[in-house]
């Protein structure tokens, strides 16, 4: 769902200028990439998939060298500058950039730079993105948790998620973003922002769409993935 939201926003922003594909399977992605080399790869990083992402980046560099731009985002990307430096230099030395917090706008900002001039993408700071210039960490102006969810279309209703709904994956629905509490045991507790909801009409349409697609699999569970519900 996280990468689908980023893909949805990018397609809304750039339309026919870009083609987007979503993958959950590493092997399937590498097979497709060999047939149709990607120009940009965005990876969602969680603590449990760090090794998988490291393996995937290694494969991509072996296959395409510097001809592919690799961008990392997700909840494991830390807001601490030292950690960001460590990620780009040590943990994921093959990656080109990080996006911090909500990734839709920052990822699209990078895509906009690529469409403008691929050779100078990482010459100047990019809003919401972090990258290395030699050993120097370049941090673009932070975007934070500011996404206007009323401008976010639905990756379900646009068909981006159809492939995954014809599988054993369980559907996820998000009705809002942010949590107003600052619990020390939770990653959300360090963030500052505003509690925002998706348009209720869109959420209702998503629920109807998903329920129809899963009508033959009543044993599946639909998860609400709001940070605080």
Descriptors:
229 residues, alpha/beta, five-stranded mixed sheet, 13% strand
Topology:
Blueprint: H1 2-14, H2 26-35, E1 40-44, H3 50-64, E2 69-73, H4 81-91, E3 97-99, H5 103-116, E4 129-133, E5 136-139, H6 162-165, E6 172-173, E7 176-177, E8 196-197, H7 200-213, E9 223-224
Parallel strand pairs: 1-2, 2-3, 6-9
Antiparallel strand pairs: 3-4, 4-5, 7-8
* Largest β-sheet summary: 5 strands, mixed
Task: Please estimate the helix content.
Answer: 25-40%
The rough form would be described as globular
How many helical elements? 7
Poorly predicted spans: none
Q: Please state how the strands of the largest beta sheet are arranged side by side.
A: 1-2-3-4-5
Output the helix-strand order: HHEHEHEHEEHEEEHE
What does the average pLDDT come to?
94
Radius of gyration: 18 Å
Question: Strand percentage, roughly?
Answer: 5-15%
How many distinct beta strands? 9
Structural class: alpha/beta
Spatial separation of the terminal alpha carbons: 17 Å
Could you walk me through the main structural features you see in this protein, from its secondary elements to its overall organization?
By secondary structure, the protein is an alpha/beta fold. It is 35% helix and 13% strand. It has helices spanning 2-14, 26-35, 50-64, 81-91, 103-116, 162-165, 200-213; strands spanning 40-44, 69-73, 97-99, 129-133, 136-139, 172-173, 176-177, 196-197, 223-224. It is globular, with a radius of gyration of 18 Å.
Please sum up the structure shown:
The chain is of the alpha/beta class. It is built from 7 helices and 9 strands, in the order ααβαβαβαββαβββαβ.
